[in-house]
Amino acid sequence: DAGVTQSPTHLIKTRGQQVTLRCSPKSGHDTVSWYQQALGQGPQFIFQYYEEEERQRGNFPDRFSGHQFPNYSSELNVNALLLGDSALYLCASSPIIPYGYTFGSGTRLTVV
Amino acid sequence: KQEVTQIPAALSVPEGENLVLNCSFTDSAIYNLQWFRQDPGKGLTSLLLIQSSQREQTSGRLNASLDKSSGRSTLYIAASQPGDSATYLCAVPLTGGGNKLTFGTGTQLKVEL
Hints:
- The complex is a heterodimer.
- Chain A is built from no helices and eleven strands.
- By secondary structure, chain A is mainly beta.
- In chain A, strands 2, 4, 5, 6, 9, 10 and 11 form a seven-stranded mixed sheet that branches. Chain A has a four-stranded antiparallel sheet with strand order 1-3-8-7, with no helix packed on it.
- The N and C termini of chain A lie far apart (37 Å).
- By secondary structure, chain B is mainly β.
- Classes of the chains: A mainly beta, B mainly beta.
- At the A-B interface, β4, β5, β9 and β10 of A face β4, β5, β9 and β10 of B.
């Protein structure tokens, strides 16, 4: 049973560019959440998608946007990249009732 | 606002020692509490999930307890091994707050030979 799959694993972008990260949830999970983890910190919640809609959002600017597709997979888009956006981006899936989360291996984004 | 604190921030122990990692949270209205392991630069691996109605969960050498009323959880690792070296994170979703997870900053564990 495949867990959560994220792509790409690593990415280097230039300041001001745009980036798209992708996530396929664990089989049977319909809710996808995205987290940003800076070095030495715990993950910070970005937003959550359920039924193709953004259900919750953390304290992140509108430069961060997302999408969920009918097959429950999801994308995270970040526009106008800043150096401070460099981080590990984690995708997590769960059933809508929180019986526990499964995380992917993450995408390491470096903005130069 | 839920705040999660983990103590200690870092821990170094000799192989074979039993150890306890602590997690505290400020709002006891939680569905469950989850402990994760993170290796450097990697994603999170779920270790144990304790539902709010449970007091503890065990998996192999790991045992996690939950005391909702006092806002505390502990992760007990028995007979530690060098392969246990990693960062351990606890996380809670808020009841009625959707299932957004709030994380602690983690305990960085090093088990030495």
